[in-house]
């Protein structure tokens, strides 16, 4: 039985980590900023993600896969933080549910697409945001979420259908006048999925 390969020398680990940081810290910060309440919280998420990356530098994939790998680390950090917040606020949430009877309408500046997205479950929202905000392909999304690309395809198809259903419900209800979307990509007919609900085509799929 052959002996395990020795770990890389410290200088090599430092060089790999530096290259990883230079290549991913900006998109990782953007990923975090879009998912937390304040820039300071986003900075904490990014810092913790790079601590994990340093500890597991030998596991970090090379090339283009490094970015979705780091998104996956940040996603798990955010999930752990949310679980902690949920435990601390569980009693307040139960009281709020009992007291609040009327949900205030969305802000006037919110588009129908954003309101429809907010009606979806957390998993659907995250999947569609990885497509719209991070512009990831299916194989990259699979790496972020820790699932197969086939599962991504199925879940994305279902998420897009649910988004279409919510857009249609908003259109039929007519409770709020449509607000302009924040980008031209969002300006779609309310009976079809927005353009950003389709993932970027990877080189493998092209």
From TrEMBL:
MF GO annotations: DNA binding; sigma factor activity
Keywords: Sigma factor, Transcription, Transcription regulation
Listed InterPro entries: RNA_pol_sigma-70-like (IPR039425), RNA_pol_sigma-70_dom (IPR014284), RNA_pol_sigma70_r2 (IPR007627), RNA_pol_sigma70_r4_t2 (IPR013249), RNA_pol_sigma_r2 (IPR013325), RNA_pol_sigma_r3/r4-like (IPR013324), WH-like_DNA-bd_sf (IPR036388)
Superkingdom: Bacteria
Biological process (GO), any one: DNA-templated transcription initiation
UniProt feature coiled coil, ranges: none
Region (Disordered): 171-206
Family annotation (Pfam families): Sigma70_r2, Sigma70_r4_2
Residue span(s) of domain RNA polymerase sigma-70 region: 20-87
Residues covered by the RNA polymerase sigma factor 70 region 4 type domain: 113-163
Family: Belongs to the sigma-70 factor family. ECF subfamily.
Protein name, entry field: RNA polymerase sigma factor
Species of the source: Cellulosimicrobium arenosum
